[in-house]
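Exercise 3.2. Students should predict the tertiary structure of the chain below and write it as structure tokens, then compare their answer with the key that follows.

Predict this chain's 3D structure.
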Amino acid sequence: MASDLERVAWPLEGAGEAMEALARAARMPLPNPLPTLSRAVPADQSRIGEWMDGVAQALGLELQPHYTRHGEVEQALGRAAPALVEMTGARVVALLRVSSSGETARVIAPDETVHEVPLSSLTAAAQARVEHIHGPVVEHVLKQTRLEEPHRTLARKALLGAQLANIYLFAARTLRLPPGARMRHHLRELNAGRRLLSLFVVAAVVQVCVLSSWWLIGRGAFDGQLDPGWLWAWALMGLTLVPLQAALAWVQGSLAMQLSALMRRQLLAGALALPVDESRRGGIGEFVGRTFESAGLEQLVLTGGFASLLAVVDVVLAASVMVTGPAGWYGLVALGGLCGVLAVLVVRQAVGFRAWTDARISMTHALIERMLGHRTRLAQERPERWHEAEDQELAHYAEASEYLDGATARVSALAKRGLLPVAIIATLPAVLSGASTARIAVGVGAALLAARAVGSLSVGVLAVSGARVLFRSVRPILEAARSSNSNATGGAAAPLLSEAAPPESQALLEVRDLVFKHTGAPRAVIERASLAVRAGERVLLEGPSGSGKSTFASILTGLRGQGSGLLLLGGLDMATWTRDGWGAQIAGAPQFHENHVVSGTLAMNLLLGRTWPPTPDDLNAAKELCEELGLGELLARMPSGLMELVGERGWQLSHGEQSRVFVARALLQRARVVVLDEAFGALDPVTMRKVMACVEARASTLIVIAHP
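Answer key:
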């Protein structure tokens, strides 16, 4: 079994080709060709995952790691496909899918042929990456027991399972599209077209069954021959609706859940990729408002979209039945006229919804800003004026709410009750001319069906129009997600620099004629700045406040767009690198007010630039660095050491301790260039000398920004 698995495994340097083969076999879009330097595997084994992530990003894809316990690898592999499974010996397996029985796995060999292998063999290969820790001890025990096969294999598996029960490992890395990819690519990956078509078909069949069942019972009733056969046919048609309704709910629910997860991924990616200037332009209240709007947008898009699609099916069927009834084309004209009037009312309701949304966001923003500045307000503002602005905002909000409620009520009332009298009036000519009772009943039934369909359609259209209004607030976040994806996938370079130092004649980091101007600013903050930093150099940048030092640092670390000019890292332009590839090579510690201690453990704050959860080597490296930076006494005071919670609700760190945590975070990212922006201002002279000595010893290439 192991030899069969070896024959279908890819060498680690061919992981990029394995991703391409997986994407093609899974019918996943490939936005970009394979990078030309994708086979440059880093010598540092701890950076293999980072390298694989960079290759996937350059392809326009991403890898989602499945981190699980040793004993749960098989279940994780069943959920991971399509994925890359790492093996010992620097090899990977391209897992396409797992059979429905869960016994075999279909994998792609290096010649791009598909083979079936036992899932247990693939599980054992993934588990072997950590079994070498206790393998010799187990073999020694088994040797003393003198067990024969197959009992020896079973005993070995049980002993290793017990010893490694709480050991975690990366079972696989699922290949998928990044959140910022084109929506049509996401819809293609979800097979949304076929699923929507099946949704339409099932909905149409459900409505046909409903109409057929009532036709059966109605025919027997109007003909005066309601015999048991007609009743059995009606009952069977009703029973047929049960699995059809279940299938309709399952198709709609599964697609809605996946689209909801996709939208949340896009919003999270966009929030993380939002430009710094865009983040600063709005206060905390605006971001809270955007968070509220994103939740409402998701609900309105999904509920309104599916309701509208299903209502269209109902309207089409109702129109076809109405034409065959006594109203004929008059009923169809009445239906079209009502839909036109409803369209006008929906547009007016959307205007009211936009005004109501703007008033709500403005009120939320103002409320939070007042809460943040409450003490200043109490000290500087007269008590009788504390609530003047709030009263005006509430009055404006109440006025907008009244208009919206009235517009919504008019749409709902007309949609639910407007068609029925119009359709009945349209049947009067046929009634007066002596139409049959059965035909009149068909007309009334068609009117009832059309009234229900128009009511559902109005609900869906109102939700979609509301989502369109909310999209304005969330649009910058979604655009940030798309732009970050285009920046991450625009190059064809390896995401990591070569381990070898560049020649002395070549600068490791070079800036040429950099110009940067903030949006709306009258003049540029940075004008034609140039800098060349060679590997191993220590550079000090000084300047007065407002001279653009911090802006320059944020551009170097990739937090801001570069404006115009040229930035080269290892001879490659910033536009050539993947976004994470550039960030992996240049680590920065921004100014204190721009840096943050997140509400988690100290280890999480220190190791943010590495893979999480941390390995024992990562924790040892973090502890050793804390000792060098003078944080040893802090660790000794913490009951849980590195695993102590810090931040807003945890262990409170002083200003100087936070500054050293920020420095440690930058150094632990193992970057080739470290940029420290006024990182020593909160330290006393003795501590600063200790920190500087540590930074000098650990940073490969260092840029320090400080006041003169």
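Discussion points: The chain is about 60% helix and 15% strand. The first helix runs from residue 2 to 8.
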